[in-house]
What we know:
By secondary structure, the chain is an alpha/beta fold. Helices cover 43% and strands 17% of the residues.
Amino acid sequence: MKIALGMIIKNINTDDDIMRFVENAEKYGHELDCVIVAYTQELNPRAAAAISKKARFYAIDIKNPEYCIEQFRSRGISADAKHTLLDCPVDTARGLVPYGFKRTAVTIEAILRGVDVLFFVDNDVYPSVLKKTPVGSVTEDVDFFGAHLDSIKAGALITTGEYSGYNILPPASFDGMDDLLHGVQKIEMLDYWQSSEAHRCLAVQPEKRVPTPCTKILGGNTAITLSAFSKLPPFFSSYYIVGDELYLNRGEDTVLGLSIAKNATQCIDIGLNPLHDTYKNFPAEPDLRNDLSAQDRFYYACTGWVGRNPFMNHVKGEDLKEVRSFQRERLIRGLDALSAYTSNPKFNSIIDNFDTSWDSLSRYVSEYENVLRAWEEFIERSELT
C-alpha cells in the first residue's frame, strides 16, 4: 500500500508544518511513499531540501502544475478538462485560491503518482491530541497514520475525525447568537456556543476512541483511499469578490460528503482528534471581544460560511428564495449584535458578502458542472482501480 501525505499551503517557507507529520510516520513505523504539497506563492529551497532528505517530495506550484500538465497531455485528456482542473481560476498576488481547487490538485497528483491512500493534513494541525488531566489539559503524541490505517485496513474507504483545541466558534455570550448562527447556517452549534462560558469552546480527546460511520469530512484530518474517487466527485469550492477583496468559500467537501452517503461509501470517523491551532496562538484562549486577531479569524470564518451556503443549499435542493430571505433577515440582526458585542463595525459588512455570494450562485453551479465533467474524463483516463 503506497501512502502519501498531502497538504495545501500558501508558502513553503519552513519544513516544520510538514516534517512534524513525516517524523510522526517515521516514529510509529509507517513508510510514506511521498509528500505532496500544493503551494500558491513561494517555495523555499532550503525547506524543500530538508523535506526531501526524509521523503520523496513533490511541490505543486498551483499556478503551473508541471507534472500534472505533462500527464494530462500524455494521456490524451482534453484541453477543456486540463483548463478546468489545472488552470488556476483566480490570479491574485496574495495566493488566495479556492480550497477545493487546491485539494483537487493534490488529489490529482497523488492519483497520477500511483498513490493508494492520501492523507490530508492542514498546516495548523499537529499529530498530537489534547487530553484532560487533573492538573489541566496536556498534549500527547499519537500514532496519527496508524489510527487512520486501522480503519482503512478494516474496509473503510475514507477516514476522518474532529479536532482537539479551540473551536472556530470562540467563547462568547451575547443576545443574538441564535440570529447569527441562523444567518451563517450553523444553527446546530447553538447549544454548544451558548454554553461556552462553561467549556470555553476547548475540545479534548475523548478517553475512549470509538470509530463510527459518518459523512462529514474534515480536510485537515482525513485519509482517502483514492480508488473511491472512481465513484465520487472531487473537492469543490469557489470564491466571490466584494469591492476589491477576494473571499474564499468554505465547504469544499459539501458535495463529496453528500455523495458519500448516496453511494454508501464507507466513511469512518476514527475518533482521533488531532490538535488544531485554530487561532494560531494555542494555548492562549481566543478573546473575541477584545482581540483584533481573533475577530479577524472569526470574520473570515463567517465570510466563508456565507460564501458556501448558496451552493450547498442548491445541491441539497432547498427552496433557495425562502432560505435566502430567512437567512438574510436573521443575519442582519446577528451581525448587529456581534458588532455591538465586539465594538467592531466590520462585522456588519458581512451582509454585503452574503448578498454577493447569493448573486454568484449561477456561476458556482456552472463552475461545478464544468469541474464534474472534467473530473469524469480525468478518472476515465487515470487507470484508477
